[in-house]
Design goal:
Low-confidence stretches: 17-50
Radius of gyration: 55 Å
Distance between the termini: 146 Å
Helix content: 55-70%
Number of strands: 2
Shape: rod-shaped
Structural class: mainly alpha
Strand content: under 5%
Length: 179
């Protein structure tokens, strides 16, 4: 299966890497680019030396693993990686700190709102108590009004009875007068 696109580019960069390493280690054979790197297209890909032996029993060749020489820029790359990792972690921690500050501010605002609601409920309770006290002070007058209303209704009933009785008396008087 042939590699295409990004995979092929990655494979090409891997296959060209030993050339850069061998040129860096062998400055006399390199055609000058920056930091002793060979120019593109110059030279053939160099391979690490392999030791091959023949096993007389089975006729199989064995090979040792190729060891790439250390990159001289490894310290710079490590320092760059650590700087970038530090920036990343600092950004993550800054974001987390900002989230906690936001939560703290939200908690403070919520606490203030609950304090305001507490004050409002205390005022409402106080006003309700005042109204209950005023109603209690007016209760004797309300009782008097109820008694007066009952007396008025009993007087009204007595007036109706008196009116009915006076009509009967008038009718009798007229009856007696006619005789």
């Amino acid at each position: 299966m042939a590699a295409t696109g990004d995979d092929a580019a990655a494979m090409d960069s891997i296959s060209k890497a030993p050339t850069a390493h061998s040129a860096a280690l062998n400055p006399a054979g390199g055609s000058g680019g920056p930091a002793g790197a060979p120019a593109e297209g110059s030279g053939s890909p160099a391979t690490a030396p392999r030791k091959t032996t023949t096993n007389s029993d089975a006729g199989v060749e064995t090979a040792e693993e190729a060891v790439e020489p250390a990159d001289p820029d490894i310290n710079e790359l490590c320092a760059d990686m650590f700087e970038k990792m530090a920036l990343f972690l600092q950004g993550e921690l800054t974001g987390t700190c900002e989230d906690y500050r936001l939560l703290e501010n939200m908690n403070k605002l919520t606490s203030l709102k609950y304090m305001e609601m507490k004050d409002i409920s205390i005022n409402i309770s106080r006003n309700l108590q005042d109204l209950n006290n005023k109603y209690a002070s007016l209760q004797p007058y309300l009782d008097q009004i109820n008694q007066i209303e009952e007396q008025v209704s009993s007087l009204e009933q007595a007036a109706y009875k008196l009116d009915a009785y006076s009509k009967k008396l008038e009718a009798r008087f007229k009856k007696l007068e006619k005789r």
